[in-house]
Write a structure and sequence with these properties.
By secondary structure, the chain is α+β, with helices and mostly antiparallel strands. The protein is 45% helix and 22% strand. The chain contains eight helices and ten strands.
């Protein structure tokens, strides 16, 4: 391998090895060539949820044994390691099975060869792989993607693959480089050796599970906090008195602003055919709740500002369900609410009594004036007309008073429903806020 006049192996002495490049470097071809694999995850370049593609940057390192590249350092002036062109040596055809794009990585032109025949090949690899991305818990999602390394052509009889480093050490090395690297954080790297079977052939493979989690602060600041501000304003709008303030216009303005917000943040949300993230469901529910609150405001406003002449008495089932059970359930207390029904009954009795009494007086006046002596005949029509006018005025006042009481009862129905829907709305928003906080806590301690 070495000549006395040269320091280390020479090109001429290695020419025989270079000529054997097409052949696997094994004296006995029944013995497989063992390839040791390790990598360092340097950066997560991108995650495309729509196409289910993960783009990463790896420092890949391969080790294998070349049985024809062995020399004695004592005979080669103490040279134990040399670099040779990778194009002149046999290299194992190790690929990543999940690779879905052209390899545009910069290839390293040299390998290191040890005097014992062990070769180390380092290269930088821009890896574009398919990955089953789960975006339901976005932006607090954790993704688990697989990198399967193995030979493309050589079966298990020719090439075997093994990890060059423990999986924990590969994970620790990768975390040191990914600590301040963009949106994603490395959780751990796991691995397992296995065998891939296809028909009657078998391939030796190593499967790495790369677990990464997203840093959600960008989406919390840009999505959740602005949405929370709009929802808080919508919640506070329930405290506006619907009988004196145009609450409906205020809510319509909020819905318009929230719609513009949804259009702006649409580009930030991931979209896949497999499902919708829970934050997208949250935004849809919030918009639906705002529309429902607007509808509720329209109904309440219609009840409060409806023409009193068109009012009918509150149905008995509405009075029982709304004014009794629902009001008690939501702890709605109003001093006039318990006396409303009694007022209506009393007003009805007064109206009936006064109406009967009025007719009786009119009859007595007519009879008395027609039978009494000494009264001028001209005074009888005047008394009758005055009596009729007083009766009409009294009936009109009684009708107005009765309508005021009915309107007051309908107002109570509207206020109870408004208070009920406000409680439900507030409960839903609070529950989802706790869900978001809980998911964030899980992300932090995962």
């Amino acid at each position: 391998m070495c000549r006395p006049s040269h320091s280390g192996p020479t090109y001429e002495s290695l020419q025989e090895v270079f000529d054997r490049k097409p052949f696997r470097p094994a004296v006995n071809l029944s013995n497989p060539t063992v390839t040791n694999i390790s990598f360092t995850l340097y950066a997560v370049l991108g995650v495309n949820e729509k196409t289910q593609i993960l783009t990463t940057f790896l420092w890949l390192r391969l080790f294998w044994f070349h049985e024809f590249l062995i020399w004695d350092p004592n005979m080669c002036d103490g040279i134990t390691k040399i670099s040779l062109p990778v194009s002149d040596l046999w290299t194992p055809d190790i690929i990543v099975y999940e690779f879905v794009d052209d390899d545009v990585s910069q290839a390293c032109p040299y390998v290191y060869v040890n005097h014992t025949g062990h070769i180390r090949y380092d290269r930088m690899l821009r890896l574009v792989t398919s990955c089953n991305l789960d975006i339901f818990s976005f932006p607090f999602d954790v993704q688990n993607c697989t990198f399967t390394f193995g030979s493309y052509m050589h079966t298990i009889r020719d090439v075997r693959v093994q990890p060059a480093l423990p999986f924990e050490q590969m994970s620790g090395n990768s975390k040191n480089y990914l600590e301040a690297s963009g949106e994603w954080e490395l959780v751990e790297i796991l691995g397992e050796a296995g065998i891939l079977k296809f028909d009657i052939d078998e391939w030796d493979i190593i499967t790495f599970w790369v677990v990464i989690k997203r840093r959600p602060i960008l989406y919390v600041v840009n999505l959740l906090i602005p949405s929370s501000f709009l929802m808080v304003i919508d919640i506070l709008s329930f405290y506006l008195p619907p009988h004196s303030v145009d609450r409906a216009s205020f809510k319509m303005t909020l819905i318009l602003g929230y719609t513009v917000f949804l259009l702006i943040m649409n580009d930030l949300l991931p979209s896949t055919a497999n499902g919708t993230p829970i934050i997208g469901i949250y935004f849809s529910v919030c918009l639906a709740m705002m529309v429902i609150s607007l509808l509720e405001t329209v109904i309440i406003t219609n009840v409060l500002h409806h023409n009193s002449m068109k009012y009918r008495p509150v149905p008995q089932w509405v009075r029982v369900v709304v004014l009794k059970y629902i009001a008690r359930f939501i702890c709605y207390k109003d001093p006039d609410l318990s006396h409303t029904q009694q007022k209506i009954l009393e007003q009805g009795d007064i109206w009936s009594t006064q109406h009967t009494h009025s007719n009786g007086e009119f009859y007595n006046i007519k009879t008395h004036t027609s039978t009494s002596a000494g009264v001028s005949p001209l005074s009888v029509p005047e008394l009758v007309e005055i009596s009729e006018c007083v009766r009409v005025i009294r009936d009109h006042l009684n009708m107005l008073q009765r309508e005021v009481v009915l309107q007051d009862e309908w107002c109570h129905v509207g206020y109870v429903l408004d208070f009920l829907l406000f409680r439900i709305y507030l409960m839903l928003i609070t529950c989802y806020a706790f869900v978001i906080i809980f998911m964030w806590c899980l992300w932090m301690y995962q």
